[in-house]
Amino acid sequence: MAAKARGLFAKGGPVRSLFGRSRATSIASGYMIGCYAVVAIVGVTAIRILTGLAPPAVFGEANLLLVSLQLAATVASQPFTTTQLRYHSGEVDAGRGDSFTRAMLMWTCVANGGVSLLAMVVWLVQRRFGASPLGLPGLGGLALLMIATAVRNVNFGRFQAERRTFSYGSLLAIESSTAAIGAIIGLRISPSVDGYIVGQACGSATAALIGLAWDLRTALRTLVTTQPKPRALEMVRSYGLPFAPMGVLSWLANTADRYALGILAGPAAVGQYVAPFAVASRAMAMIGAPLVDVLRPILFEATNRGDKMGARRVFLIWVALRLTIILAALAFLALFGPLIGRLLLAPAYRSGATPILMWVAAGYGVQGVVQTIETRLMSLDRTSWLIVPMGVGGLANLAFSFLLIPHFGAVGAGMATALSFVVQSAVVGWRLRQAERSAGF
Questions:
Q1: Dist. CA 273–CA 33, nearest whole Å
Q2: Which of 289, 324, 328, 360 is packed most tightly, with the most Cβ within 10 A?
Q3: 3-state SS of the chain?
Q4: Are 337 and 31 in contact (CB under 8 A)?
Q5: Are 201 and 141 within 8 A, CB to CB?
Q6: Burial degree of 93 (CB within 10 A; 0-12, 13-18, 19+)
Q7: d(C-alpha 396, C-alpha 62), whole Å
Q8: What is the pLDDT of residues 94-153, one digit of tens each?
């Protein structure tokens, strides 16, 4: 047993083999981490500017609309985009890569177009009763955002599936910048929900066009390809379709709090909550991303080598690092939370910002632990076991939100987020223990 544990770090072991790869691979990994940092920094900087331009009610209402659209788009298009990532390389090897990409693009556009039509019907009903905060320009912005998102997801997905790290990372950084700039310009022209959504839609469309122009020859070849047609819909039914309910559960676990807050306290309270929420959640994601990039390959490689002790040791190290990040983040926010609020949030959003920052940072730190356990389950080929913990986490977020928000307001929403992830971590940890026992640990 001790020999197996030492084998993790021995010559030829997974850790040594990972860090012994080519300099080009190391540079690519570092570049990707840098791009994640750029995305987070741009997002946090944009929040300070956006909160200075948009009143809390506008910021909150626009966020609720965009999150609703995100749910519908996830249910409609995620089966196609996940299928693309899974089967793209195999279709390329079979000489159907371009036709496969075109099929995924067509069906994703159809799915997102259906979401746009649904949004139009809902808008017409709301306008009939005078209850819609969105005007005709905003509705057009939502439709543009849906089509741009479809093109973006398929095109970016191709770069990701082909492991074109520099292209994929660069486009992520460009997208974060164009979306932020578009929203800022939209709010400067019209500080309204319409202005925010139209601006962000234009920025996202710009990023999608840049993505197509990035490799224009491949994009044009994909559109006019004469390759044999792939069995795209059969692949989606057999592999991608189950990801639709998983997307709903993930959405519920991550966003139920703000909808409960909107129902109980109104869109202005949502705006005052979402701004510090975005700062804390993006910061925690930026800190955790390098751990995923470094430790996930080691974990899977140790599992594939049959090194049970080594894989378990990597997992425990990963969890320990996640817990250390939580403690460090909470200590930092306890000392500098008010300063961060003054630097990154407009005055109208600073009330109660420090406790929201701390609760959300704690929650998304625990979510990092949940993701680590989920990765361990996937390494044991127990992906379907993730559904129950996700459902429990989503329902817990909803229940805690309606329980705590009436007493603590926006801070209660942050508390609900943190507590729901704690519940989810307990359930997924229990499932992992079952999986490890069945695997002989």
A1: 28
A2: 360
A3: CHHHHHHCCCCCCHHHHHHCCCHHHHHHHHHHHHHHHHHHHHHHHHHHHHHHHCCHHHHHHHHHHHHHHHHHHHHHHHHHHHHHHHHHHHHHHCCCHHHHHHHHHHHHHHHHHHHHHHHHHHHHHHHHCCCCCCCHHHHHHHHHHHHHHHHHHHHHHHHHHCCCHHHHHHHHHHHHHHHHHHHHHHHHHCCCHHHHHHHHHHHHHHHHHHHHHHCHHHHHHHHCCCCCCCCHHHHHHHHHCCHHHHHHHHHHHHHHHHHHHHHHHCHHHHHHHHHHHHHHHHHHHHHHHHHHHHHHHHHHHHHHCCCHHHHHHHHHHHHHHHHHHHHHHHHHHHHHHHHHHHHHCCHHHCCCHHHHHHHHHHHHHHHHHHHHHHHHHHHCCCHHHHHHHHHHHHHHHHHHHHHHHHHHCHHHHHHHHHHHHHHHHHHHHHHHHHHHHHCCC
A4: no
A5: yes
A6: exposed
A7: 25
A8: 888 888 888 888 989 998 998 889 888 988 888 887 777 788 899 999 999 999 999 998
Task: Indicate the angle between helix axes 193-214 and 136-161, nearest 10 degrees.
Answer: 30
Q: What's the pLDDT band for 26 if we cut at 50, 70, 90?
A: low
| Domain boundaries along the sequence of the chain | 1-40+242-441, 54-241
Q: What is the pLDDT of residues 45-64, one digit of tens each?
A: 899 999 999 999 999 988 88
Compute the C-alpha angle 288/294/300, nearest 5°: 115
Nearest residue to 332 (alpha-carbon basis) of 363, 367, 357, 368? 357
Intra-chain end-to-end CA distance of the chain, in Å: 12
The pLDDT tens digits of the residues spanning 269-325 come to 999 999 999 899 888 887 887 777 677 777 777 777 777 788 888 889 999 999 999
Measured distance CA(264)–CA(406) in Å, rounded: 7
Q: Are 195 and 189 in contact (CB under 8 A)?
A: yes
CA distances from 338 to 295, 342, 356, 358, 362 (A): 34, 6, 11, 11, 17
